[in-house]
Amino acid sequence: MDEPVRVLLADDHPVYRDGLAALLGSLAGVEVVGTAADGVEAVDRARELQPDVVVMDVQMPRLDGIEATRAITADSPHIGVVVLTMAEADQTLFAAMRAGARGYLLKGANQGEIVRAITAVARGEAIFGPAIARRVAEFFAAAPTAAPGSPFPQLTAREHEILALVAAGRSNAQIATELYLSPKTVRNNVSNIFTKLHVADRAEAIIRAREAGLGR
């Protein structure tokens, strides 16, 4: 039998937190190992309990859920964070993603959506509620293309964007976070850039890009 997914719940509203803990605790395949009432406690409890998944509210005292997510994923990258919040603003969504959250649901999500998110994130996947997924897709669909006359016309708009960040000294991990891409996607794009620019390594690519005015 598979081990249950160990979950830590962080929310400053005791009625919601305790209700969700009771709900999840009643389900097969999920074990609620602890709760936290604010961001500082969430970070401490995550470090102590090493859960598979933290379900994280955003608006909390002492330390908000975004900063708590950043601290948890930096300290324990294997812990998946699912943000469960009332906050619908794009800036909150993308701040959570940049902080390392792998799931984002609104508090109107039903039991099935919450459980699917928790189990998916525990497997290392990223998952978003239907409304959130649509907004992420729309954000990338509206991404600007490279302007005519840009340096390195052989590059796609995405490769041009990544090259500019390489030239600015960003690591692949930083680029992945900043552009909301997987590390593998960034690696593949960087490899394609090297091939198209006929450069041997990152240092040579940076020189070429800076000579063209990128990354300054």
From TrEMBL:
SMART domains: HTH_LUXR (SM00421), REC (SM00448)
Coiled coil regions in record: none
Domain of life: Bacteria
Domain Response regulatory: 6-122
Single Gene Ontology BP annotation: regulation of DNA-templated transcription
PROSITE patterns membership: HTH_LUXR_1, HTH_LUXR_2, RESPONSE_REGULATORY
Keywords: DNA-binding, Phosphoprotein, Transcription, Transcription regulation
Record SUPFAM superfamilies: C-terminal effector domain of the bipartite response regulators, CheY-like
Residue ranges of domain HTH luxR-type in the record: 148-213
GO molecular-function term, one example from the UniProt record: DNA binding
InterPro entries: CheY-like_superfamily, NreC/VraR/RcsB-like_REC, Sig_transdc_resp-reg_C-effctor, Sig_transdc_resp-reg_receiver, Tscrpt_reg_LuxR_C, WalR-like
Location of 4-aspartylphosphate modifications: 57
Pfam families noted in UniProt: GerE, Response_reg
Cross-referenced PANTHER family: TRANSCRIPTIONAL REGULATORY PROTEIN NARL-RELATED, TWO-COMPONENT RESPONSE REGULATOR
Protein name per the record: DNA-binding NarL/FixJ family response regulator
Species in which this protein is naturally found: Kribbella shirazensis
